[in-house]
Design brief:
Layout: H1 2-28, H2 34-84
Helix pairs in contact: 1-2
């Protein structure tokens, strides 16, 4: 279980660091024209939303896997108690 929490926290740290890097790049490119700034903002928000969707997909996938694991253990327990006994 600690491996899962370590992986999840590493995922959060990586996402946070990449978001900070995007904001640094946006600040660095602040001398561009207004149209380029608008494009940068849209592009940055698109990347952040992709990261958020990826994180949401990861969480939902883990929840489904955990649910299926619990369901499998319950089914195995039911079979062992009713069929074998």
């Amino acid at each position: 279980m600690s491996e899962v929490s370590t992986r999840a926290s590493a995922f959060w740290v990586e996402g946070f660091a990449s978001t900070l890097n995007l904001f640094k790049l946006q600040r660095k490119n602040s001398k561009r024209s207004l149209s380029n700034k608008r494009f940068d903002k849209l592009f940055t928000h698109e990347l952040i939303s992709r990261k958020a969707l990826g994180l949401l997909g990861y969480i939902i996938g883990r929840a489904i896997r955990s649910f299926l694991l619990v369901l499998g253990v319950a089914a195995l327990t039911f079979l062992l108690t009713h069929v074998v006994a």
